[in-house]
Automatic annotation (TrEMBL):
The keyword Cytoplasm does not apply. It comes from Urochloa decumbens. This is Amidase domain-containing protein. Keywords: Signal. Pfam families: Amidase (PF01425). Residues 1-22 form the signal peptide.
């Protein structure tokens, strides 16, 4: 089987630079413009003296105080954020500032561990007060880059492994879409997506197992990068399955997302197998070098028919406009492609494996905590049963968690499911990419997320337009190297 340890490199970066333009920022002189400020604008403000990290953090704290009672995107703010910002300002005054994220506030999904005064709970009351042994691998990299940890964002509880309303958790309540309050914010990284869209953080970090970055990025009109599994460490992140879990940025612009990606990729001895395999594909000099408007020249972009079924003519016309933009920037667009494989059993096989792998993974995570009210999946089930009102058992139940508890590891059925999913990937996207010599494929919204998930492939969602109700739709891109 072909190894698809992927780089988000020139083809996709060229596409998204052609489709999306960075917005906001400061001018060389005058007052800094906080709304929609990009990472590049923030760093310019730091350099020309129109901005401090402390002022930036205070702006986002004020935004959270003003907007979060309605949007419920932030589950907890970091009591040490202003102190971290002051430290970054002091470092900068001594000429010791670092890279693109130095002094920049980052909001983390509440399944990403921080060894500080913040909780890490996946939105569940069962983990409130638990103590993690260390920062998650991606958080350690953010701190090394000089970023300020602003707080935790509201997820769908247990990253939607417990099937709740998208964006709801017992700790954080119901996250709302900032564009259309009655529309779904999608999940499970709803909080990061909404917070980025509503200017409640400079940049945010989410996680994905199947659609949890791509879908809320699509729903909330932000850029979301789902990296190849293993490109970013999963250590210290409350897990679902090691075959599919990945951590990635959710930001207002392409360039911001790439700056964050550059900061968080790399080898981690606590996630050695996955990061060891993927880290050798990280390009020397990082990913920002591929943010070029001419990156599409000579690239071959595939459009599989299956992902565009069910859309009306108005929506299809919008997507066609973006395909024409790619052509104008030098790409060859190959339409009406057929992924000649049977996907009908993908969901069943994926679910079968997730149930077994979630039990193994969550029990391992809980056993590593220094303190926790729960120590096993069965403890979580018991906690929810003891707190039916707070955990809304009547509304959502906990069927997937109960199904996972009934599993007994990776047996013959699970191994057969793994073989079948590898077959789907090999005979599907991998075969399509090779036969048509494609650099990337394009799909609407998060429609291809399950296909990407089971293969460990990456995806990037970029805003493509809005429907008549104001709901955002996106174009999703997949690029991998055979």
């Amino acid at each position: 089987m072909v190894d698809l340890r992927l780089q988000v490199v020139a083809a996709v970066m060229g596409i998204i630079m052609a489709l999306a333009t960075a917005a906001g920022g400061s001018k060389p002189s005058g007052a800094f413009v906080f709304d929609e400020a990009t990472v590049d604008a923030i760093q310019l403000g730091f350099r020309n003296g129109t901005l401090t990290s402390a002022a930036l953090v205070q702006f986002y704290l004020d935004q959270i105080a003003r907007l979060n009672p309605l949007l419920r995107a932030v589950i907890e703010v970091n009591p040490d954020a202003l102190a971290q910002a002051a430290r970054a300002d002091a470092e900068r005054s001594r000429g010791a500032s670092g890279g693109a994220l130095h002094g920049v506030p980052v909001l983390l999904k509440d399944n990403i561990a921080t060894r500080d005064r913040l909780n890490t709970t996946a939105g569940s009351l069962a983990l409130l007060g638990s103590v993690v042994p260390r920062d998650a691998g991606v958080v350690a990299r953010l701190r090394a880059a000089g970023a300020v940890i602003l707080g935790k964002a509201n997820p769908s509880e247990w990253s939607n492994f417990r099937p709740v309303e998208s964006g709801w958790s017992a700790r954080g309540g119901q996250t709302l879409n900032p564009y259309v309050l009655s529309a779904t914010p999608c999940g499970s990284s709803a909080g990061p997506g909404v917070a980025a869209a509503a200017n409640m953080a400079a940049v945010t970090l989410g996680s994905e197992t199947d659609g949890s970055i791509l879908c809320p990025s699509s729903a909330n009109s932000v850029v979301g990068i789902k990296p190849t599994v293993g490109l970013t460490s999963r250590s210290g992140v409350i897990p679902i399955t090691p075959r599919q879990d990945t951590i990635g940025p959710m930001c207002r612009t392409v360039s911001d997302a790439v700056h964050v990606l550059d900061a968080i990729v790399g080898y981690d001895k606590l996630d050695a197998e996955a990061t060891g395999a993927a880290s050798k594909y990280i390009p020397r000099g990082g990913y920002t070098q591929f943010l070029r408007v001419d990156g599409l020249k000579g690239k071959r972009i595939g459009v599989p028919t299956v992902f565009f079924q069910g859309y009306d003519q108005v929506q299809l016309a919008v997507y066609e406009k973006h395909l024409n933009t790619m052509r104008k920037h030098g790409a060859t667009v190959i339409k009406d492609l057929d992924i000649a494989t049977n996907f009908t059993d993908l969901y069943d096989k994926e679910t079968l494996l997730m149930n077994a792998e979630f039990k193994l993974s969550i029990n391992a995570y809980l056993s590593d905590l220094l303190h926790s009210p729960v120590r096993s999946l069965s403890d979580i089930i018991a906690f929810n049963n003891k707190h039916p009102v707070e955990e809304r058992l009547k509304d959502f139940g906990q069927p997937d968690i109960i199904a996972a508890e009934k599993t007994n590891g990776i047996g013959a059925r699970e191994r057969a499911a793994i073989r079948r999913l590898k077959e789907i990937s090999a005979n599907g996207l991998e075969k399509l990419m090779k036969e048509h010599r494609l650099d990337a494929i394009v799909a609407p919204n998060s429609d291809a997320s399950s296909v990407l998930a089971v293969g460990g492939y990456p995806g990037i969602a970029v805003p493509a337009g809005y429907d008549k109700e104001g709901v955002c739709h996106t174009l999703k891109l997949l690029d991998f190297r055979m």
